[in-house]
């Protein structure tokens, strides 16, 4: 008995040492894939030197870190390494694959919407980079140049040759800033818009570009401090969105079809369509009603190209005067129904402004053809069908008030208390908790920067926050060198994406059990705060981690904050994906892991 007691004490001591070690560290993975330029190993070595581990005293954790669970997990058999996928999957987009898309109806572009594979058809392998892949140019050079090896698709250089979209020159693509409707360049086009819309005054901060091409409008709006989300379908205009993201411009694969856009109501200061081929005059105005939903009160809608300017340009458009005139007449009628005010039409560009509130719209315009939508959450959009109805605005007590609250101009908007918080529209959040959240993430981001000095260098241009909360991570990082796609999971307890937009930031809803609507290798840095705990009983960790691996650029990085027992499981899968782990110190806060994890791959696939 004495011997057994001694053995038990020894075993308990070892258990406590293991638990203390696990709970005293968070995982820092700084792992880089070898790029075609062969520079990955040098960067990895430099970062490893910057992130040497140190022990952290006085750590304590909540009781949910179970010793039995941790030990049982470490006893599990080793996960078999994931193999590289076949080269045909280099540009794999799981929910927008052509072969699956063609099995769906073409009405309302349904076949171009998201159609994700069932579990039995999911890929459990690592998406390879194309041969010769090299690190993208840094911003702002990336705005104008993209390596051919990274996006080896030349079709747009032929199809859009006279429209100045993109030119192939040697081993690079050059983007002169042109577009179908602005072949003389985006700068001149934006100047035209700015003569009517207060773009340079900080009042227009967030914009939506529908049917964006290679996103040159969004690329050049950065000069005006405007953040633009651009979208286009994955169709015969090969690699539009891939080019946009490779240039360092926010974009996603999407279409105005039959389901709602993945944004909350009253999100954007401006929406734009430049010859985007969306049938605005069709479907009883349903697409214009969806734009109305996502536009902020007082926001602007820009439409350039057919049918605007038909009296001058109809011959070049190969449509009859009568057809174009009838199309514009319908658009004007729908705009009137929505209570939009046309403020300009010149040189083939028409601009409308959305009503400030519902009181400012004459009741006679709310006829049976303009039925108001039912009262639903402004976040209830994921896979929900669009309807022919007008989204109601929050009530106001005066015709001069802005429905939902007036926003400050940017950059003051970034830290001003958002109206949704002030008005108590977001359950569980107050002015005080909002301000505390900002302070907390400022501290976290400073710690990240102290750990990885590359964060401030422009090395990470395209950044994603997988569980963005109030957007405080993105706010703390705010810089012209980078942008953050703030994702709010569809299963989050509280939808905060409206708050994020009121701060002058951008983002979208997404379910992380599915593939994200982007191409492989499109983000430099991925931040994950509590994602694996949130999805623990929803889908497999492998699915989430393989998707992170797919969208992460070679030589990219990931920061993961989560519970210790969750990270133990994540680490095992990461090792099977050729990711490497490092240990580093950080602070303890609440029930989250004290610190972060930097990920990447340094083995070729």
Automatic annotation (TrEMBL):
Domain of life where this protein originates: Eukaryota
Entry-linked InterPro entries: Put_SAM_MeTrfase, SAM-dependent_MTases_sf
SUPFAM superfamilies on file: S-adenosyl-L-methionine-dependent methyltransferases (SSF53335)
Enzyme Commission number(s) of this protein: 2.1.1.-
Molecular-function annotations in GO: methyltransferase activity
UniProt topology in membrane: Single-pass type II membrane protein; Single-pass membrane protein
Compartments reported by the entry: Endomembrane system; Golgi apparatus membrane; Membrane
Residues annotated as transmembrane: 12-32
Xref: Pfam families: Methyltransf_29
EC class: transferase
GO biological process: methylation
One GO term describing the cellular component: Golgi membrane
Key words of the record: Glycoprotein, Golgi apparatus, Membrane, Methyltransferase, Signal-anchor, Transferase, Transmembrane, Transmembrane helix
PANTHER family with a match to the protein in the record: METHYLTRANSFERASE, SAM-DEPENDENT METHYLTRANSFERASE
Family classification: Belongs to the methyltransferase superfamily.
Protein name in UniProt: Methyltransferase
Lineage: Eukaryota, Viridiplantae, Streptophyta, Embryophyta, Tracheophyta
């Amino acid at each position: 008995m004495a011997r057994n007691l001694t053995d038990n004490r020894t075993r308990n001591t070892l258990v406590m040492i293991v638990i203390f070690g696990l709970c005293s560290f968070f995982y820092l993975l700084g792992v880089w894939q070898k790029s075609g330029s062969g520079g990955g190993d040098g960067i990895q070595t430099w970062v490893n030197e910057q992130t040497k581990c140190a022990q952290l005293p006085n750590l304590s954790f909540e009781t949910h870190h179970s010793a039995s669970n941790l030990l049982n997990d470490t006893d599990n058999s080793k996960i078999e390494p994931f193999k590289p996928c076949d080269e045909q999957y280099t540009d794999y987009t799981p929910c927008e694959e052509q072969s699956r898309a063609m099995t769906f109806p073409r009405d309302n572009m349904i076949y171009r919407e998201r159609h994700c594979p069932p579990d039995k058809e999911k890929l459990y392998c690592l998406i390879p980079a194309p041969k010769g892949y090299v690190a993208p140019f840094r911003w702002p050079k990336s705005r104008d140049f993209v390596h051919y090896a990274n996006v080896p698709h030349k079709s747009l250089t032929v199809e859009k040759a006279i429209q100045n979209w993109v030119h192939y020159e040697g081993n690079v693509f050059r983007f002169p800033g042109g577009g179908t409707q602005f072949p003389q360049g985006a700068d001149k086009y934006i100047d035209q818009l700015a003569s009517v819309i207060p773009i340079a005054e900080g009042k227009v901060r967030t914009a939506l570009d529908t049917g964006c091409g290679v996103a040159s409008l969004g690329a050049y709006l950065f000069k005006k401090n405007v953040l633009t989300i651009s979208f286009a379908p994955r169709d015969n205009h090969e690699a539009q969105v891939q080019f946009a993201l490779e240039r360092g411009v926010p974009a996603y694969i999407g279409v105005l079809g039959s389901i709602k856009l993945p944004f909350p109501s009253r999100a954007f200061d401006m929406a734009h369509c430049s010859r985007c081929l969306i049938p605005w005059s069709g479907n009883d105005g349903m697409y214009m009603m969806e734009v109305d939903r996502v536009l902020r009160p007082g926001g602007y809608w820009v439409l350039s190209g057919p049918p605007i300017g038909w009296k001058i340009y109809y011959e070049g458009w190969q449509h009859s005067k009568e057809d174009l005139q009838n199309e514009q007449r319908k658009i004007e009628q729908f705009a009137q129904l929505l209570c939009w005010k046309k403020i300009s039409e010149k040189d083939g560009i028409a601009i409308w402004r959305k009503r400030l509130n519902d009181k400012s719209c004459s009741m006679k315009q709310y006829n049976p053809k303009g039925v108001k939508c039912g009262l639903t959450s402004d976040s209830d959009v994921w896979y929900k069908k669009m309807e022919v109805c007008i989204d109601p605005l929050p009530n106001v007590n005066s015709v001069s008030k802005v429905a939902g609250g007036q926003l400050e101009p940017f950059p003051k908007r970034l830290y001003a208390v958002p109206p949704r918080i002030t008005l108590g529209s977001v359950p569980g959040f107050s002015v005080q908790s909002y301000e505390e959240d900002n302070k907390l993430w400022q501290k976290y981001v400073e710690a990240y920067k102290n750990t990885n000095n590359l964060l401030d260098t422009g090395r990470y241009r395209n950044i994603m926050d997988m569980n963005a909360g109030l957007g405080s991570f993105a706010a703390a990082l705010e810089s012209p060198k980078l942008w953050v796609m703030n994702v709010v999971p569809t299963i989050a307890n509280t939808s905060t994406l409206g708050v994020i937009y009121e701060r002058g930031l951008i983002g979208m809803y997404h379910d992380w059990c599915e593939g994200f609507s982007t191409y492989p290798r499109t983000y430099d840095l991925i931040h994950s705060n509590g994602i694996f705990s949130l999805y623990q009983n929803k889908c497999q960790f492998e699915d989430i981690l393989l998707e992170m691996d797919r969208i992460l650029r070679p030589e990219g990085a990931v920061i993961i904050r989560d519970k210790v027992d969750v990270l133990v499981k994540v680490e095992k899968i990461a090792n099977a994906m050729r990711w490497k782990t490092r240990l580093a110190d950080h602070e303890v806060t609440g029930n989250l892991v004290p610190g972060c994890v930097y990920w990447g791959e340094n083995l070729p696939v």
